[in-house]
Amino acid sequence: VRFSGGAVLVPREPSLDLLEAFTEHWKGITGYYLEATDESVPARQTDIPWRLKQMLDILVYEEKQRPAGETGPCLEYLLQHKVLETLGTLGKAEYPPGMRQQVLLFFSRVLGQVQHPLLHYLNVHRPVQVTHGGDATCRGWPHPCQTGDHLGSGTEKEEVQFAAVLCAKIKQDPTLLTHILEVRSPPGLAGCGWGHLWGLGRFLEHLHVLHSSIPAGERAGKEGMEGAAGCVTLPLFSSSSSQKSRVALKARENLLLLVGLAQEAAAARLVRSSALCQLLTEHLCDLYSAVPACTDPADILAMERVSWRSQGDAADDGVFPGKESLAAFFGWLDYLDEVVVGAHPVMADAISEAVEERFFQGILQPQLLQMSELDVLRATAVLTGTVRQIRAPPLLHRLVLFLLGPDRHPEIPGDTPHPLRTQLINRCNHLSDEISLASLRLFEELLQKPHEHVTHSLALRNLEARGYLQRNPPAPDEDLEEDPYFTDGFPDTGFGMAKIPLPASAPSGKGQVSEVVSSFLCLVPEEAKTSSCMEEGGYDTYVHDALGTVQACRASAAPWGWPPAPRPLDACHPEGTFYEGHFLKVLFDRMAQILDQPYSLNLQVTSVLSRLATFPHPHLHEYLLDPYLNLAPGCRSLFSILVRVIGDLMQRLQRVPHFRAKLLLVRRQLMGLVPGEQMDHTMLFKGVVVLEEFCKELAAIALVKGPPEGPP
């Protein structure tokens, strides 16, 4: 019975021969195009959806009734009479309106529910190519530049569902990739250098990985790409509605299936015969370019790590200019990171290489090396956020070598084999405190990454030969007590040097843990301590924190093969004068200025040093945490620097009237117990507070780590 609206109601027929029923339903669909008079009736108001559902049910039922792997007559009919190819053409024509949606649903259900491997058949994978845009030649797909053809006109959900089925099938059988991406250059594309990329480009449109998710209003300065190569980057990622966001999320999950191909040959083909790596990376660069130049570097640094699965939540959590664009950039970087984690090693390396070439070297490096302080701050902040986001080992490896270079031999003073590394380390001691602070934060973030080359490049390469140790025992009159800071020439100020445990009075090297802890805790004289005057000294908190950080460091370093004990001295052959290396030199120089630099900078310097001290390498442990080292002439250690800072502090405090009361007041201000007020020597007093807390932190780390094993 045909209703006035064009809908057709067909009563459910009695049990008939399956093939007869299947062909009847197919003829009913083709007959609609001969009988229909109203071209505006939507497909869902016709009997087409019902007939397609019946055909699907018949195919599934038939397969269950036959031995596994045997093709039934209905499936043979579908293949021999090019049913799918005809449906693909009808879907492209969008007649009746909404037919494309019905075809996508039917294709998805057939491929997903019929267990027989279908995609190897020419009469299946060709219409599949037509449906996902893979064959733009024989089916008349127009050039997207000419038509403005964008996917997403009401069928996003069905497109992604269809792509999900294809990805799942390719995941099960990677050889199908050859059929899905088999393509000839469409007319008009051969001359524009894009032909062989068309198939994957159209397929990726369905995956929605080429969305332009750059928020409206923040596209300043972004020009459209010219030529056919730019046509694949279609603005499909609209985050304007929750529905489209869910579609985009599902689409990205589909691509994760695709890149995880188990067979190396399939992964290599995907790399070699497609623009996937290029397109993923170009989108990252586009999103970065869309971040407004006025975005405050402090806001960038303050952003938490963004997850691509909950990117919208990050954009809504706190508002500042550029927040949405920044969240989109870091969200896509997080997605790329997960793609690399799940991809076949061939694909992972190709994506990582593309990110390094196009983003690290092509965009970040020029910005990091420029002279404008504001631009340097912004680029350093983005780099810090990038380090925080990246976890995939291949991508992290590329990032570490990009920043630090591959060199592993001991450094030579003044040698700069990797200019970017040199520049970044130099900026930790920059004239601008803001740049110094941002650079130190970058290295702190880098030291938290599970990559052996970070600690080796920054510190361990220069400690391998233990050149900081004096080979022959010092004569009695050559110990540290002869240092000018340890003479008895100070006026009587009430805090004598006898209260400081001098390293020379202890056995040579490797003091007991209790002695090491006591050395750090007693380094600051009682008169200069303020934590004991508060309700809680805080040492227990440092021990608790050290337990977590040391355990995490040990877990990260476990695969690196570090020795449990220092190398025997007779096996160490240092070449020339010991040099602690560029990074430690800058940190030590900064530490020596702790009484004369801003509070925030002191916190950051000590944070980086304490992070280094938590690493379980025995050479790093003794160099940073052993107060009883016999240092070679001209060498310094962290403890020796602290001793000299304390000596300088004791001299300077003599010249400050009522220093004790003022020091306590500053401590209470830093804790927020009293309002802040201007006074003389505030920077000095804040430095003393940081110095005391740093010594407690080092003592806690030394206590948790315990002594290194083996002989000195």
TrEMBL record:
Pfam families: DUF5917, KELAA, RAI16-like. Coiled coil: none annotated. InterPro entries: FHIP (IPR019384), FHIP_C (IPR045669), FHIP_KELAA_motif (IPR045668). Residues 580-672 form the FHF complex subunit HOOK-interacting protein C-terminal domain. It comes from the Eukaryota. PANTHER family: FHF COMPLEX SUBUNIT HOOK-INTERACTING PROTEIN 2B, RAI16 PROTEIN-RELATED. Belongs to the FHIP family. This is Family with sequence similarity 160 member B2.
